[in-house]
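ok trying again, last paste got cut off:
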Amino acid sequence: MKLKKLITTGIIILLFLGVLFLIRFARAAEKRDPAELAWLHSALIAHRGLHDENRTVPENSIPAFRGAIERGFIIELDVAMTKDKKLVVYHDKKLRRGLGIDQYLHELTYEELSKHTLFGSTERIPLFRDVLAFVAGRVPLLVEVKNEGKVGEMESLIYEELRNYQGKYAVQAFNPFTLNWFRKNAPEVLRGQLAGSFAVSDYDVEYAGTTRLPWYQRVLLGNLLLNFMSRPHFIAYEVNHATGPRLKSMRKLGVPLLGWTIKQKDEYEKAKGKFDNFILDSVISEITENLP
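nice, full thing came through this time. structure:
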């Protein structure tokens, strides 16, 4: 009986250790020379540029990027693809929130999109290549790839635009398959895994077309258990979902940790010191107004 108990205990211990090993393998990141990543925390990151909550300066617009450049902020922006395979800088899948039309971005050509303005302004959705030409390396770029569909074509087009870009940049995505494409086809490009709670409001679904993921996908992605595909060089995690234990486990990955998205000054004050840098909405101006 004692031998049987001993064997059973040994099996349980081995299974436990095996599970721990698999989790550690699944969540591991790929470390790069810290000098290559230093720019990620050289300045605060302006979420979709320096906009004013779309009152007069729309997010992901040339004026928003101009404002970020003038203040020396890193620019975070989103890249999506139109029906006619044009790369544009726009966040939502659905156009209702930004353009006031009840259609999806992938259903329209760029010419059709260009008939509409952003958030009631005079600005239109810019082409990715035009944004790259405008920024021209003056500040670093954090490029979020908005692809929930088949991976390959869009990523390849983005890489073609970026490969000769004279400036610091990194790509990031919630989709680990997108990052896996860059890992295999453009390993020199810095890549970041976005993650968080994946909670989606009714407004997000109706106006932005945000996808509600099934629970098991939220568990896998929220706990970075698909890192074995993306092997990210940094993590960008939802600030309000980053509990103490979760922060501790992410720190053990040994790569830079960014926090998204700071919307209020008190959020920034509470999160300071827990992340290496932050992606901030328009509150970035309030936070930095007294800084030199």
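cool. The chain has a mean pLDDT of 94. The first strand starts at residue 45 and ends at 47.
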